[in-house]
Every structure is written in structure tokens, then in C-alpha cells.
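Postdoc handover notes: sequence design on the structure in folder B. Input C-alpha cells:
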């Protein structure tokens, strides 16, 4: 069964995730209005290295991607083992980037090591990790919308198992599969602060997606909200990649992105994937 998005859009979603996250690195944790606006990779905010690196959220997305490629389907235990390797040994991390799991992910990994149960996300956790690392699931399972939505929930349950996190992952997967971004809410103003709570992240994402007509416009609108800018940038990057494709991402940003070629090959493999459990 053919996937309802092109190879260019598949590239756009996974590369868009990494680009959005890397743009957000420049101002992550800073209050809105307290930094020079980010205008591109290495422009605005603190100086970034020539090759723009990304945060641990992209590492976790790549862990999921490698698991899917290896198993040709969903393997929760394999995914958690790769997350642990990232935490302990920097597996799939950008150079010099120490593993930086949020407290909810850290707790889930410790619970997995103690129990062996890969679905160790707390039922009360409401962080945004489950929507930030989503693109690999969509690329792999996108031929069947319902499968993509179900596996989106499973990958959220690994570390963030609250109903709102699972619902957000499933709903975002549906939009990424179908491309029906016109159904997204359009708030009049961004949230007061982007805290990393999934509600705040989605509010910021929905606002940013209405702030322009290009990949550049909407992703910059997202990261310049400050706060958890990596998460907001990564989610908008996935949506914008679905809308405008890889060809819509500024070429100078692609040239700056760390491990661009490896991520692009990963997107190719996931796009070609036909999961055995679908």
C-alpha cells in the first residue's frame, strides 16, 4: 500500500524535526524577549558551531528509527535499550552533546532497567517528548493511518504515558500522515510561556504554523517563542516538512545540519519500509 506522502515530504518531516530542534538550541531555556531573534542556523542567539548540532530529542528519534529499521516493525524493548545506550554512552548523540533526558524520561529508563517492562512511562507525565520524536513512526507506518496512530501512542507510552500525551501523539501522527494541517487550531496568540508541557507545546505549535507561508517563517516563529524552543521547533519542523517538503527547507540550513546525510538515508529507509506488523 502506497504512503499518502511523497519521498520529498518524508525527507522533510525527519530533516525538519532535526532542523527545528537545532534552531531551538540557540535560545532553549531563555525567556521570550530576552534574546536576539534567531534568523537561521548560526544566526541570532549565541554563536553555534559551523555544523549545527541538535539535542537529545533528535537522538531519541534516531533511536526509534534504528529500532524500526532493524526490526522492520515495532519492538518496544529494543527502543528502550537504545534509549539507555544513548543516556549512558551517547549512542546517536551529536558530538560533545551529553545525554540530557528530561526527568520523566530519566524515571522511565530507570523503571525499565528495574522491571524489564518497556512501557515504563509515568501515567501522570505530561511532557512533550512523545510528539517531538514522532516522525520515524509516521514514515515507517504511514501507509495505514490507524497503524501510525496506534504506534505513535505506543512510542509515547515508553516514557510519557498519560492520556493527554498518548492522544497528542496519535492526533499529530494523523495530521502528519494525511497532511490535513488545515484542521489544526489557530490560536490568536502564543502561550504565555513554552514550558515543555504538551499543552503548551501544542499551543505554541498551532500558533506558529499560522505565522507564515514557508518552512522558514513558521519554524522561526516557533523557536523565537523561547522556553522549550527545541521541542517547539522540532514539532513545527515535522509539520512544516510535511507541508513544504524537503525542498522547502532553506538550503543553507541543510548545509549546516549535523549528520544531514545520515538522517536523509534514514528517512529513505523508513519511507521504503513495509512493517511486518502492519
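Designed sequence:
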Amino acid at each position: 500500500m502506497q504512503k499518502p506522502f511523497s519521498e520529498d515530504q518524508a525527507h522533510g518531516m525527519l530533516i525538519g524535526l532535526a532542523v527545528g530542534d537545532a534552531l531551538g538550541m540557540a535560545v532553549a531555556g531563555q525567556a521570550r524577549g530576552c534574546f536576539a531573534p534567531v534568523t537561521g542556523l548560526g544566526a541570532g542567539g549565541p554563536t553555534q558551531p559551523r555544523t549545527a548540532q541538535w539535542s537529545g530529542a533528535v537522538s531519541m528519534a534516531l533511536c526509534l528509527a534504528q529500532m524500526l529499521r532493524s526490526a522492520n516493525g515495532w519492538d518496544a524493548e529494543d527502543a528502550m535499550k537504545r534509549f539507555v545506550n544513548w543516556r549512558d554512552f551517547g549512542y546517536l548523540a551529536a558530538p560533545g552533546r551529553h545525554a540530557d533526558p528530561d526527568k520523566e524520561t530519566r524515571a522511565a529508563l530507570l523503571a525499565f532497567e528495574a522491571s524489564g517492562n518497556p512501557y515504563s512511562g509515568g501515567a501522570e507525565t505530561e511532557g512533550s517528548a512523545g510528539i517531538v520524536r514522532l516522525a520515524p513512526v509516521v514514515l515507517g507506518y504511514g501507509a495505514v493511518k490507524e497503524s501510525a496512530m496506534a504506534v505513535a501512542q505506543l512510542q509515547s507510552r515508553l516514557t510519557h504515558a498519560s492520556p493527554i500525551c498518548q492522544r497528542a501523539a496519535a492526533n499529530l501522527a494523523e495530521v502528519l500522515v494525511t497532511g490535513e494541517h488545515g484542521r489544526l487550531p489557530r490560536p490568536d496568540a502564543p502561550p504565555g510561556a513554552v514550558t515543555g508541557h504538551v499543552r503548551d507545546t501544542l499551543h505554541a505549535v498551532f500558533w506558529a504554523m499560522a505565522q507564515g507561508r514557508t518552512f522558514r517563517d513558521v519554524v522561526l516563529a516557533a523557536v523565537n517563542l523561547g522556553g522549550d524552543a527545541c521541542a517547539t521547533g522540532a514539532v513545527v519542523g515535522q509539520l512544516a516538512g510535511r507541508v513544504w517538503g524537503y525542498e522547502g527547507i532553506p538550503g543553507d540550513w541543510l548545509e549546516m545540519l549535523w549528520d544531514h546525510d545520515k538522517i536523509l538515508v534514514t528517512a529513505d529507509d523508513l519511507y521504503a519500509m513495509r512493517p511486518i506488523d502492519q
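Context for whoever picks this up: The chain has one domain: 7-272. Don't rerun without checking with the PI first.
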